[in-house]
Predict the structure.
Amino acid sequence: MNNSELSLKEAINQARSIYILPKEPVIEEVLIPGLKNSLSLDMMFGYFSSGSFSEIAPGLATFLKNSDGILQMVICPVLTEADYQVISLNQNDLANISQRILIDDIPNEDQIAKHTLECLAWLIFQKRLIIKIALMKDEGRFHSKCWLFGDKDNFAALHGSSNATTRGLTKNREQLTLSRDWTGGEDATSNIDRLRREFEDIWSQKDEDMLVFDLPEAVENNILMKFKPDAMPNEETIIS
């Protein structure tokens, strides 16, 4: 049960409709309050890095503490080397890494901010984060960027150009649009419904343009790829 003081609607009702990053505070105005006051979060990203957890730590810690919601995420198979090493581990090794910072409790804000890899291990081990890997059948790339927040009454979608990486949320020039189903606008409701259907079709492997793998299957079949530099790959690197 969610013990948050606010509903999702109350938490982000005053947020802007469009954010230009990094100069506008989408983390403080949407991501953190949205997480704190949601019961579910579905995500699609071209690139993901666990380092992004440090940017949303207050919201993620509250989500984990105040609800039993499961984070669901679809990503492309390209990972930083550190994330690749964690995501490829078996359950016993995930548990051992989690124990570096945690014994039998959920991670708090400080632990999430300072120990993102251990928290990634904990989230996967505890099944609070379920990751699926997406490949395009025509050799294109899965490149969606969307956060789908929900509570018992409302949904909101934050979508645009920013990936869930530290650079994508804090350094790059990006644009994100916030759609809320309570604003009364037909476009906002239609956008959210379309994005939710998109996520559900991909998650349930009904999208005919894509191959979608559960994480253990992706690991077993060597679908995951690691990228050694600290920076995420750019367009030219991937194409070449």
Observations:
- The two ends are 48 Å apart (CA to CA).
- Residues 236-240 have pLDDT under 50 and may be disordered.
